[in-house]
Write a structure and sequence with these properties.
The protein has a six-stranded mixed beta sheet with strand order 1-12-2-3-4-5. Strands 6-7-8-9-11-10 form a six-stranded mixed beta sheet. The protein is 46% helix and 16% strand. A hairpin with a 5-residue loop joins strand 6 (253-256) and strand 7. The chain is elongated and about 80 Å long. It has two domains: 3-136, no CATH class; 139-382, Metallo-dependent phosphatases (Purple Acid Phosphatase, chain A, domain 2), CATH 3.60.21. It is built from twelve helices and twelve strands.
Length: 383
């Protein structure tokens, strides 16, 4: 599907869902605050119309160019998106409560409505601040010991660090990545992998944001696969720039490291939807999984059962952000059977990382950013 068609669908759905949610919150505040027709109601209505259109408008501006004004508008729209989620949740509780008070104690409804409105705003702001701090100032290290087939001494204890969903662009900039790189360097990995969404939409104009990655040192280098956002941003440019800074994208291909580990990379399904060839894991992996230890890099955690059947020892994915903002993880679980953490299926394992960056709001709540350190275990050490 062409990029313009995907953007048109995104725009239509956003107007329908996001706009409808804004109308509900507007009506909730207008009702609880007891606003009669006049300037105050007009101002509130205008604010919510502008707010509902802000993210769409900032995305369109980003399509046309990048300058300080666009950065400010994009940041404001992204912050509002996160704050609005908690205003919406607050109104879903407060507005029905206001209705109950109005029914049973109409004399106190006006005062109760104003206090409920204030409580919703204060709670939403406090929650958003906490989510911003979690996203931008907390980074946890997840340690895993993963058994793999074979007993090669050279492979036992082999250390892989996984990064995913960095989303470099207007929100996540090079300074943030530089801090991540410093953390990764301190983990002394032998191989670093990036499992998609290195860049965000239209970040192809800001490819230099990825340059701190060239300071990462590991024995077997830096491997990557594409995520869906690479195709929104301009995959060819990103892959080419990745090669310039020492990052190798595995594009529906596998390589064999000197220690015998097979690393297989599969393109994100978005590539096929945007006109690329549709390639199956079986086509790329072949018979390698029958005897050799295999690590599969695939952005979306959708093919784990197939990977297990083909003998993949470890699949590394991202994409879900673990919901990014509570309670959205509950929605993610209805879309993806594998949302976050370690999953086991026979002798195969899948780890779905919450990622280190953000999409949309620069916020995370109950979904802390993470770097994953994996130690492969063979033979008796795997027991």
């Amino acid at each position: 599907m062409p990029r313009w068609a995907q953007f048109a669908i995104f725009l239509s759905l956003t107007l329908l869902i996001y706009g409808g949610a804004h109308f509900f919150v507007y009506r909730s505040f207008a009702g609880m605050m007891g606003l009669a027709p006049g300037r105050a109601l007009w101002a509130l209505r205008t604010f919510f119309i502008v707010a509902a259109l802000s993210f769409i408008a900032s995305r369109l501006l980003l399509e046309w160019g990048l300058n300080p004004a666009v950065r400010v508008s994009y940041w404001a729209a992204a912050l509002w998106m996160g704050l609005f989620l908690y205003l919406l949740l607050g109104c879903l509780v407060a507005y029905p409560l206001y209705g109950v008070v109005s029914w049973f104690a109409p004399a106190g409804a006006a005062r109760a409505g104003k206090w409920l409105s204030l409580a919703v705003v204060v709670a939403a702001v406090a929650t958003s601040v906490a989510a911003y701090v979690e996203a931008c100032h907390r980074l946890k290290i997840v340690d895993l010991d993963i058994p793999v087939k074979g007993g090669s001494p050279a492979l036992d204890g082999f250390t892989i660090v996984q990064l995913t969903d960095i989303h470099l662009g207007v929100i996540v900039v090079g300074g943030r990545l530089a801090k991540i790189v410093a953390t990764v360097t301190g983990l002394h990995p032998q191989l670093i992998v990036v499992t998609g969404d290195l860049m965000d939409e239209n970040a192809d104009r800001q490819l230099a944001l990825a340059d701190p990655l060239q300071r990462i040192q590991s024995r077997y280098g830096l491997l990557a696969v594409t995520g869906n956002h690479e195709y929104y941003a301009g995959a060819e440019k990103i892959i080419r720039h990745g090669a310039e800074i020492g990052m190798r994208f595995l594009l529906n291909e596998k390589i064999v490291l000197p220690n015998g580990l097979v690393v297989c990379g599969l393109n994100d399904p978005t590539a096929a939807r945007m006109g690329g060839a549709k390639v199956s894991l079986a086509d790329v992996l072949g018979d390698a999984g029958r005897t050799a230890p295999v690590v599969l890099l695939h952005h979306q955690p959708t093919i784990f059962p197939q990977a297990g059947d083909l003998g993949v020892d470890l699949m590394l994915s991202g994409h879900t952000h673990n919901g990014q903002l509570w309670p959205l993880a509950r929605i993610s679980k209805r879309i993806y059977p594998y949302v976050h953490g370690l999953y086991v299926r026979g002798a195969s394992r899948l780890y779905v990382s919450a990622g280190v960056g953000t999409w949309g709001p620069p916020m995370r709540l109950a979904a802390a950013p993470e770097i994953v350190r994996i130690r492969l275990r063979t033979g008796t050490s795997a027991l």
